[in-house]
Amino acid sequence: MDLESACTARIDDYVAGGTSNLAVDRAAAERLLTALPEYPGFVVDSRRYALWAVDAMLSAGIDQFIDIGAGIDAVGVVDKLASWPESAARIAYVETDPMCVAQLESRVHKDERVAVFPIDLFAPSWVTDPEGVWRLLAADRPVGLLMASIAHYELSDDVLASALTDIYDKVAAGSMLAITHLSGGQDPIAATRLEQAHTQAGFPVRARNRKELAALVRPWTPAPWAPNALPGALRLGIGLLARKAAPPSSSASS
Ligand SMILES: C[S@@+](CC[C@H](N)C(=O)[O-])C[C@H]1O[C@@H](n2cnc3c(N)ncnc32)[C@H](O)[C@@H]1O
């Protein structure tokens, strides 16, 4: 296992006051905090938004989830699951960092409703692979997808949009997608500051605004239909909740 490279999940753990981090993560986090002292606000708000989104998905009847870039603590979704002991809920954690995978596996050990998949979001065809997450989840029922604080690390709009379209094409109608993303809002100077601070820390990001993010998630349909009017404005970022609409019924088209 690589103990010499910092990992964004452990950097966020450190800035949020956690203890699951290494010296290399703390050094990178301190570089980031020097340039961007308010960064912890984004981490806190992003996780809070992800949990709101899980509640919105549950309210919409979704009981199976894919948490992509789950990190170490998976934004507390495991703990939420534990509070539904009788439920049929299932969670697939998708994560590339081997140490995060190991930590998640130790947390979900023996809970057969949860599994960790060492899958790269951008690997071709992962979402159609029957040996992947669909070993745990039912492909013919809606899924709740979480992408908390991961999309901004992909610098290419095309790569990100293509991955989101592949997921859309595979999942059942009624599926929902929640994304949190670093953003300078409409202020290009704020966006540049966010990007420069992350580049200096060794983790380049794209700080996209809401319009840019909404364009990338197409063909997903963004809220306002969402229940509970989720607050989408995060400190230093945005939250977006979207849904795959049901196809028009044949009687409507005839
Ligand atoms: C900033 S952390 C966010 C962790 C968690 N979602 C949270 O909000 O606290 C981003 C996570 O995404 C993972 N990650 C980055 N690129 C990935 C990819 N292409 N596929 C799957 N996971 C990825 C990283 O290893 C890291 O654990």
Summarize the structure.
The chain has 254 residues and is an alpha/beta fold. Helix content is 39%, strand content 15%.
Please explain how this structure is put together.
There is one protein chain. The chain is α/β, with parallel strands linked by helices and 254 residues long. The protein has a single domain (38-245), classed as Vaccinia Virus protein VP39 (Rossmann fold, 3-Layer(aba) Sandwich), CATH 3.40.50.150. The protein is 39% helix and 15% strand. The protein has nine helices and eight strands. It has helices at residues 8-15, 23-35, 39-59, 77-82, 98-108, 157-170, 188-201, 210-217, 250-253; strands at 64-68, 90-94, 114-117, 144-148, 176-182, 221-222, 233-234, 237-243. α4 links the parallel β1 (64-68) and β2. α2 runs antiparallel to α7. The radius of gyration is 18 Å and the shape is globular. S-adenosylmethionine (SAM) binds next to α1 and α3. Residues 7-9, 12, 46-47, 68-71, 75, 94-97, 100, 120-122, 148-150, 153 line the site of S-adenosylmethionine. InterPro entries: SAM-dependent_MTases_sf, SAM_dep_MeTrfase_SAV2177_type. This is S-adenosyl methyltransferase. GO terms for molecular function: methyltransferase activity. Keywords: Methyltransferase, Transferase.
| Helical amount | 25-40%
Q: In percent, how much strand structure appears in the residues?
A: 5-15%
* Mean pLDDT across all amino acids: 89
CATH-level-2 architecture: 3-Layer(aba) Sandwich
* N→C terminal distance: 58 Å
Total count of strands: 8
Total number of distinct structural domains: 1
Unreliable stretches covering 5 or more consecutive residues: none
Computed Rg? 18 Å
The helix-and-strand class reads alpha/beta
Largest sheet: 8 strands, mixed
- Write the element-wise H/E pattern from the N-terminal end onward: HHHEHEHEEHEHHEEEH
According to CATH, what is the topology? Rossmann fold
Going by CATH, the homologous superfamily would be Vaccinia Virus protein VP39
Bound molecules: S-adenosylmethionine
Tell me the name of the CATH class.
Alpha Beta
Shape: globular
GO biological process, one term: methylation
Pfam family, one: Methyltransf_19
InterPro entries: SAM-dependent_MTases_sf, SAM_dep_MeTrfase_SAV2177_type
Organism: Labedaea rhizosphaerae
